[in-house]
TrEMBL record:
Protein's name according to its UniProt entry: Histidine triad (HIT) family protein
Organism lineage: Bacteria, Pseudomonadati, Pseudomonadota, Alphaproteobacteria, Rhodospirillales
InterPro entries: Histidine_triad_CS (IPR019808), Histidine_triad_HIT (IPR001310), HIT-like (IPR011146), HIT-like_sf (IPR036265)
Positions of the HIT domain: 6-113
Motif placement: Histidine triad motif: 98-102
Short name of one Pfam family: HIT
């Protein structure tokens, strides 16, 4: 059996956290590293590492809770925007191998930044790339 993640330990009540919401499949709690006040993490209770390891039903449950939490954060903090971030694997910026979504209230010039190199390939290249992606 693999070592429980910090999220598994929070969900199990082994470590303290500031819980925001819980249902049979999901658990939402304040991120200890607040980007802005109201930064919440929404995790599946089942300790699947990434989006590639969950069922379609689990993904739907996760994002139903994200939707509820985003509305609650908007009502509580009146941010100018909300960023949702779901990262997978270390190269995809994931730091805890337990699927979760960040719900981050955002404000103009709040210092939070998301930067990646952007290319603008021609439409023919985009169409060629699209043919490689088979959605089942």
């Amino acid at each position: 059996m693999s070592t429980p993640t910090i999220f598994s330990r929070l969900i199990a009540g082994e470590l303290p956290c500031a819980k925001v919401y819980e249902d049979d499949q999901t658990f939402a709690f304040m991120d200890a590293g607040q980007v802005n006040p109201g930064h919440v993490l929404v995790a599946l209770k089942r300790p699947a590492p990434t989006i590639l390891d969950v069922t379609e039903e689990e993904a739907a449950a996760l994002f139903r809770t994200v939707h509820k939490v985003a509305h609650a954060v908007q009502a509580a903090f009146s941010p100018e925007g909300i960023t949702l971030l779901q990262a997978n694997k270390p190269a995809g910026w994931q730091t805890v191998p337990h699927i979760h979504v960040h719900v981050v209230p955002r404000y103009a010039n709040d210092g939070a930044d998301l930067v990646w190199p952007r290319s603008n390939p021609p439409m023919e290249e985009l169409k060629a790339l699209a043919t490689r992606i088979v959605v089942g």
